[in-house]
Amino acid sequence: MNIASRFQTQPEEGPLVQITVDGTPVTAAANMTLAAALLAHSGEASRQTMSGAGRTAFCMMGVCFDCLVDVDGTPNTQACMTIVRDGMVVKRQSGLRGLGGGRGDV
Amino acid sequence: MSEVDLIIVGAGPAGMSAAATAAHGGLRVLLLDEQPRAGGQIFRNVGENRATRGWLGKDYASGARFVDALAHPQIATQFGATVWRIEPGPRVVWSQDGVSHVSDAPHVLLAGGAQERPVPFPGWTLPGVMTAGAAQILMKSSGMLPKDAVLAGSGPLLYLVAAQMIDAGCPPKALVETQTLGMMAKALQHLPRAVFGLPTLLKGLGLIRKIRAAGVPRFTGATQFEARAVDNADIAFSFSHKGRRHSLTSPLLLTHQGVIPSTHMSRAAGIKHVWNATQQAFEPVTDAWGATNVPGLHVAGDGAGIGGAETAAASGKLAAINVLHELGRISADQRGQRAAAAKGAKFRSRAIRPFLDAAYAPPAEFFAPNDATIVCRCEEITAGAIRQGIAEGASGPRQVKTSLRTGMGPCQGRMCDATVRGILSAVTGNAADIAPPRARSPIKPIMLGELAAMAPDQEEMA
Ligand code: FES
Description:
The complex is a heterodimer. By secondary structure, chain A is mainly β. Chain A contains one helix and nine strands, in the order βββαββββββ.
């Protein structure tokens, strides 16, 4: 399903970067947080919980951890605390990630 | 020997004003913040935006002066730096780009600010439901404007966000407010004192006038919030108002019930906390300077008790002045003289708090939501499950945590502690005896590898 963003975005000014989200190319302003870039792109969930429920960024300030995504192979990355970088490979997450990889392990 | 005299955690109004005051007094300062830039949430990205996004208002643009003051040779800043442990010493352990660092100094100022109070109701976990503060952060940091959003809850921030949305040309679809006329009437007794905060009061009235002039529908005294996902992932938001059920459909539902101090860091550092019954939150115990029971640790800003940006800036300054005194840079007399203006500012900016606290107090239904409501967002635990756990013998937050896993997800209770406490006190009736939940290091999740990499260092130091 393709769900329109829940936000109006301003015309881009300044430098842009290209990232991919589950293989789809997405353009974002260079100084944006990844959570903002995802929300600007689509109103869809950016992760699924253990029960399969969809979630997206909720607090935008590092408190709720509902914005967790896989960034360049590192799962459980807080998208709202991460600035986009050209070539970033982002994957939506489902369920919890196991030990040994990303944030949320300890 | 420490390389710095003062480590400040948090670059919001409190941390920034403390850094400038300390540096001007000759101290070497290390300022850490987990966000990418200085400003905190109130002045988020103001250094880049300045006055370019006029709809954010003059008060926001004025925050640039705090950011500018950080350009001082005695101030070193580190952003994207997440503090995950405070040790005696004091010593601060922080993580940046997947690498942990240890810094020590004779004094540490915790200025970690506040978080929005959780507003649990059925459907608050759906994509399309966010906090009003989150939407404001998107407006400040990326110029993203909420589409046709419904604002629901209560408190001054709700009016501010509504006014900013109106000025930006994307007015809210409606304001659904929980405060009642009765609460307003009760708050009026605090008005005489609030007169010291006249500018704030007038600003608030101006915001309400703007909302009215824009023709935004307002429902006050609303109860029983519920959100459902409908076609195109829109949110159908229903609530009761004057005995009737209403439903509004919108892509975005923004909720807010005021803010509470972020206390994970101060609790994990061993600072004593008390329950603030008026604001319904724990806060650290500090003296007039922000000093705590833990040697070397001060707390300032909203993390020391909710007071807003002006109070935060004043309290940061007071803490820095006290540190200057404790390090022998100024006498007690000089401390008193330098503090006079900040003390006055703190008094005036706090004068309006009792009025605001009474007028916009969060309703009980958010502390003890119905059984179907998810309380712990990380572990998807409902209020019903928590009530059952209590019925089976869990008598405090710790037992609820161990039997149900509430607060054991990555947010470590930031989203559910307040509600677990509310349900416990509603069931057991002993609100005053419920201790603050434990907070342990790492107070933010870090990678196991990162922890392992620093283990040898830690042992050497111990
Ligand atoms: S959106 Fe809440 S932690 Fe990122």
